[in-house]
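B., you asked whether I could sanity-check this one before it goes into the benchmark set. Here's the sequence:
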Amino acid sequence: MNFVQTSVVASQQLDQGFSLVAETEDFVLINKAPNIDVHRDGDIPGICERVCSALKLPELFLVHRLDKVTSGLLLLAKNTEANQQLSALFRDKQIQKYYLALSDKKPKKKQGWIKGDMERSRRGSWKLLNSQQNPAITQFFTASVGNGLRLFLLKPRTGKTHQLRVAMKSLGAPICGDELYDEASRASQHERTYLHAFALSFELKKQHYQYCCPPTLGALFLAEATRQQWLLWQQPELLAWPN
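And here's what the prediction gave me:
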């Protein structure tokens, strides 16, 4: 098996909505900016249209999604075969994903699991239940980065809508700037929701790919203490994840 590994990768800014991390014959990997929708919003093009235009590609396929407020690694297939294969990997949980999040609240616990069914709540939000019929499952670490902030490294084991944002709220530590799940953030001065798709790894056509892309927007993410912590986490698959 061939192995392609990158630690912290540099990305090439091609559009205000994204920068290019990697491109192969089968996929494009981008670093999506926060507050950019993956789908077309009225007259505003979606991310596939933007990337196609910038790279002069005839089409791209969205094989997974990020919330509009979330930045970070987004994988786009370049052809039908790759779309089917990558979609199957996501469906079968064969793609490992890791996220960074910041909170200014103390969590109920500093590491472990967050598990529970999710159901719709008010204003388009979701809530975590105690039941376990078809639960959302997330593993996490945290570390203090000073000034009352904690950085979280999140590993979703399932792919539910708003899963990580709901998980953080259930810990009593909603994400900074997340106006949907943190009432305090609605009146805050945070310029973004501090959730970032940080790393992913997968195998495609007998080749293993592994990428880690740091956040590039948001003063709290770019603070030196925060940066020093995520540098320690840039190979998240090698960490001793809590059982």
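One thing to flag: The first helix runs from residue 47 to 55. Otherwise nothing jumped out at me.
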